[in-house]
Amino acid sequence: MTYNFDNPDPHRLDDLRPEEKGACLVAERTLGVVATGWDVNGRQGAVDAFLEYRDGRRAAFEVSKIAAEGALQMDSLLGRDDFTWPRAGQWWWEISVGSRRDIPQLQERYARVIAVCEAAGVTRPEHLVYRGVALDPDIEWVVGSSTTMWGYPDVPAVDGERVRDVMVVPAGRGGATDSTLAGLHDTLVDELASPQMKKRVAKLLATDADERHLYLPVHLSAWPFDVADALASSDSLPPDPAPLPDGITHLWLAPQFGKRVLLWAPNGWRQSLPHGEPTEVD
Questions:
Q1: Residues 191 and 115 reside in one and the same domain
Q2: Cα-based torsion angle of the residue sequence 78, 83, 87, 92 in order, rounded to the nearest 10 degrees
Q3: Claim to verify: residue 78 and residue 144 sit in the same structural domain
Q4: DSSP character for 210?
Q5: How far is CA 103 from the centre of its chain?
Q6: pTM across the whole model
Q7: Do residues 61 and 24 lie in contact, with contact meaning Cβ atoms separated by under 8 Å?
């Protein structure tokens, strides 16, 4: 097959999943390659794509999104409503949810919880617990759930023509951040030993190619907070080589909410800014 590097086929990635297509576009911008979807049209056991270099080299490319159990489903459930629910009451409210299993009950109860809180003049449902009074069933449920709610009396839900719907987001994580990324090596050792990663690696190793790339979109929930947050927010490069299985030549780490993508190649770590100026990697 002959590749037109200056005007590649615009449909070459159409049949890939969004995260696979996005990963291929990052690789193209970073390396100056042309990516073509391969795990399409019912192919069995195929890598997601191939990357073609101008000098004739060919790289097998496999994408595997990683996240804590339930995190992607949580994002999907809340994201389909754009992380907002219809306003309730007179104040603006913000809700965070720790478990996707609480979403159906919360969606059924949240407006009643807001009404009770505003009538009592409290900004948090648990403040009613501190008063030592009999609890409304909805208040009792929300206080015992994975949900946290905050009301803002000084921010009206309706302000002229502006309507502020209730914001509903996954519960955040917190902790110290190690900007040196010293913990990344051990985290990668554990991740690459997982059954999911072993399957991805096996596909790459079974593919005839000059290079074999594993691309990991990393959800903030996936790894210990100090590592996941530093990937997204730090400008540092990891101090240790990537602990890759034999035969895997490149590792990409694409942190959620991060501006950069890290790439381990045989000549060491580099970072790419896929939405800014590309960083070339040999």
A1: no
A2: 130
A3: yes
A4: S
A5: 20
A6: 0.73
A7: yes
